[in-house]
Structures are given as structure tokens and as C-alpha cells.
Design goal:
By secondary structure, this protein is of the alpha/beta class. The protein folds into 3 domains: 128 residues, 3-Layer(aba) Sandwich (Rossmann fold); 229 residues, pyruvate-formate lyase- activating enzyme, CATH 3.80.30; 61 residues, OB fold (Dihydrolipoamide Acetyltransferase, E2P), CATH 2.40.50. The strands form 4 sheets. Strands 2-1-3-4-5-6 form a 6-stranded parallel sheet, sandwiched between helices. Strands 7-10-11-12-13-14 form a 6-stranded parallel sheet. The radius of gyration is 22 Å and the shape is globular.
Length: 441
């Protein structure tokens, strides 16, 4: 009997790569992968369980699939990912309609799990999370011209608000040769942009080689034929070294784009978060980055309402943002995660105030963002074509300054036909809220 498998993947790019590894195994096993849940015999929900909103999204998806199962549209449900790892005991208890729960270490057993549940079994498999596979064939869920490249998993930073070390284990780098081999295969298959991801990309190599190896990895990736853009996400500020910045300056394919989740700028709050630095030291770091990479695009994220954040600490954060004028910025209200030290701290901030402060920061950032976007008018930028929009009768894509799925897009016109993945020069003539408008030169 042919088995149709539906797959829902939630959360971050690291989780998306995990899903692509599982999807490849499912396809190679001869199962049919379907895009519509109600056409599936079994649906796999690869969950995120990092913060409250992510848990709610995962639970909503589980409930939706349970409804389809009760209607008879699907017959089996498998839950994988971070929620499965974090709440392995509770899922069966709360959702008895679920047929299998796989911890992260069991991702490699997805084919066996599908077979077991289709044979009427109910299974829970929870090996050590560090057994989670990081290598293998992937079935890309991104367009072919760009892909994530996961260089490590787990985290050893132990920020007091974060559950990731408990969910995914300590930081584990992949061998460099393995990463290069995967990148070469992606390039041979038509991938032009790779986006390097890990919980902390700048820590790469420290556990395997006793030294930071991201600069060396970048130089080797830069030499791969077919790759045109190399982008990094999740760079921890403490490990942005001069060597890394010089490497970025010297490697033509490495985009001058740095995603540095700073989380806060007040020294007292950062110390409570188990992070180092203060307004002055972080400003010094940003100044150094901009000195070595004058055209750098800086993305960051902040947390408002962390326990103990008073008006003075919040004002320090706001002033820091004004002083440093980040190109891209996200801000999130603090989420008290069970099992984390910060959830037990005194001085918990009222939830409405947390959210209000996040809104204030995002309004503040929009003015900075709009100012920076307007400065691009009249400039010609390298853009990667993502597709054609019939409604506006124009192409759309991203400048080199924009990461997919989190940053802005640019709409542009041009004579001739262009394919997804083509890299073109676009002259910017206007902005439309967060997006740019332009014309191919």
C-alpha cells in the first residue's frame, strides 16, 4: 500500500534543516510526500518549543491535525522537534490522539516511526538529544537558489532566559570537511546563496578543534564554484573577532551582513541574562565592525521586560538603539520559560508592560529603518530574483542586505526575462513601507 505523508515544520531555520533531513529519508523510503494535510495518511508535525508563542503555534497545529483525524481525513499523527523533546511525557497525556512522539535524537528513525504507526502501533522514542543527525541527504523546502547550511547544533552559552541548552544539548560543531562537502553538493544542484546557521555560528569549531574556526570555514566556502552569496545568522557578540571581520572583508562571496542577537544593552540586565557587556563595550564592538566593514548591514534582536528591567534599564536600551542605528532589528517581550533560571528571578515585569516596551522599541526602530531605506534611493544594489508578481506586474527579490523570510523585499521591473536565482543590478527609486521599489539597470 502506498503511504502518503504530510509534513508541517515550524520554528527556526535550524529546525527547518532537521525537517529537510527527515523529508529526504521519507522520500527515499518510497513514501509519497503530499502538500495538503487532508490528503495524507500520516502527518508529521516538526515542532518548535522555544518560547510561549512557539509552543502555542505547535499545539494549535496538533489540535488541527487531531480534528482532521477525528473527521477521518487522516489516520496517524507523529510529533517531532523541540516540543516533542521538551514535553515528551506530557504530549501523550494531553493529546492521546497522537500516535508517535519522537525526541530530537530519534529524527533519524522517522521512516521506522511512519511504518510503526501505520501498523497500528503507538510509540514514544527519546534517545539522547545529541544523537540527532546533522548530516545526510536533504529535500530542500526552500527555493533551489538558496538554502540553509547548519554548521552546529546545541548551545553552551546558558543564557538564563533560554531553554535551548536543555532541549538541544551542548554545542556540537560538524566536521569542516562534512560541511564543505554539503555546500559543494548544494552549489552543484543550483544553490547560489547559502545561509550559515547554528545556535551560535561564531562558536564554530571550539569544541572540535579547540579554536574558533568560522573564519577558516568561510574561506573554504568562498572557494566553492557556483556559490555567489554566503550569509551568516546568529553571531554571538563575544566571538566576533578581528580575524572574522578581516575574513569577511577579504572574501568576495561573504556578504557584509551580520546578525548579532544582542538581547539588551543595560549592564545589569545583561549580567542577569548571563551575558557580558554593556552599552559602552557593545558600542565599541559595533564601531569596530563598521570600521573594518564600512558597508556592513547589522541585524540584531532585543528582549524587553526581562526580570528586573526598570525604567532606567529600558531607557539605556532605547538610547543604545538610537545611538547605533541598526539596519535591521527585532524586539520581543520576555517570555518566562519553565525550567530556566530567569523564570524564578524576582522582579518579574508585568506582561502588558513587557509587550508595551517591545512595541515602543519597534516604533523607534521603524523611524531608523525608514531613514536608512530612503538613503538607498538612487543607489544600484545587487538583488537576487525570487519570482514574478502578476498583481504588480513586476519581479520581486532581495538585495544582498536582506535575508530571506526575515528582512525586506524589493519589487523591480526590467526588460527581458529573469529566472529565480538570477542576480541582477537594481536601481532603487522609491520605498513602500518596509520594501524597496526599483528597476533593473
Amino acid at each position: 500500500m502506498s503511504i502518503n505523508v504530510g509534513f508541517i515544520s515550524l520554528g527556526c531555520p535550524k529546525n527547518q534543516v532537521d525537517a529537510e533531513l527527515m523529508l529526504s529519508k521519507i522520500e527515499k523510503a518510497g513514501f509519497s510526500i503530499v502538500d495538503v494535510a487532508y490528503e495524507a495518511d500520516v502527518v508529521v508535525i516538526n515542532t518548535c518549543g522555544f518560547i510561549e508563542d512557539a509552543k502555542k503555534e505547535a499545539i494549535d497545529n496538533i489540535l488541527e491535525m487531531i480534528e482532521l483525524k477525528n473527521e477521518g481525513s487522516i489516520s496517524r499523527i507523529i510529533v517531532t522537534g523541540c516540543l516533542a523533546e521538551r514535553y515528551k511525557d506530557e504530549i501523550f497525556k494531553e493529546f492521546p490522539e497522537v500516535d508517535a512522539v519522537l525526541g530530537l535524537g530519534a529524527n533519524g528513525d522517522i521512516v521506522e516511526a511512519v511504518t510503526s504507526v501505520m501498523n497500528g502501533e503507538t510509540i514514544g522514542v527519546y534517545p539522547d538529544n545529541e544523537n540527532m543527525p546533522m548530516k545526510g541527504e536533504r529535500l530542500l523546502t526552500t527555493p533551489q537558489h538558496w538554502a540553509y547550511l547548519k554548521i552546529a547544533d546545541g548551545c553552551s552559552n546558558c543564557c538564563t532566559y533560554c531553554a535551548i541548552p536543555a532541549i538541544r544539548g551542548k554545542f556540537r560543531s560538524r566536521p569542516m570537511e562534512e560541511i564543505i562537502e554539503e555546500a559543494k553538493k548544494l552549489a552543484a544542484d543550483g544553490t547560489k546563496e547559502i545561509i550559515i546557521v547554528a545556535q551560535d555560528t561564531t562558536r564554530y569549531g571550539l569544541d572540535l578543534y579547540d579554536e574558533l574556526k568560522l573564519p577558516e570555514l568561510l574561506r573554504k566556502l568562498n572557494a566553492i564554484d557556483g556559490l555567489e552569496w554566503i550569509r551568516m545568522l546568529y553571531c554571538y557578540p563575544d566571538r566576533i573577532t578581528d580575524e572574522l571581520l578581516v575574513t569577511m572583508a577579504e572574501c568576495s562571496k561573504v556578504l557584509h551582513y551580520l546578525d548579532i542577537p544582542l538581547q539588551h544593552a543595560d549592564a545589569r540586565i545583561l549580567k542577569k541574562m548571563n551575558r557580558s557587556g554593556d552599552k559602552e563595550s557593545l558600542t565599541d564592538l559595533i564601531d569596530k565592525i563598521r570600521e573594518i566593514l564600512p558597508d556592513v548591514v547589522l541585524r540584531t534582536t532585543f528582549i524587553t521586560g526581562f526580570p528586573g528591567e526598570d525604567e532606567e534599564a529600558f531607557n539605556n536600551l532605547s538610547e543604545f538603539i538610537d545611538d547605533n542605528m541598526f539596519d535591521r532589528l527585532g524586539c520581543f517581550a520576555y517570555s518566562a520559560e519553565e525550567g530556566t533560571p530567569a523564570a524564578e528571578f524576582e522582579g518579574q515585569v508585568d506582561e502588558e508592560l513587557r509587550k508595551h516596551r517591545a512595541d515602543v522599541i519597534m516604533e523607534q526602530q521603524y523611524d531608523i529603518f525608514e531613514f536608512k531605506q530612503r538613503k538607498l534611493i538612487g543607489k544600484t544594489l545587487k538583488c537576487i530574483v525570487e519570482g514574478y508578481d502578476g498583481y504588480s506586474d513586476s519581479y520581486f527579490g532581495r538585495t544582498w542586505m536582506d535575508a530571506p523570510e526575515i528582512d525586506s523585499v524589493v519589487y523591480f521591473t526590467g526588460k527581458g526575462d529573469y529566472d529565480e536565482g538570477d542576480i541582477v543590478d537594481v536601481e532603487i527609486f522609491d520605498i513602500n513601507e518596509y520594501d524597496l521599489l526599483g528597476e533593473i539597470v
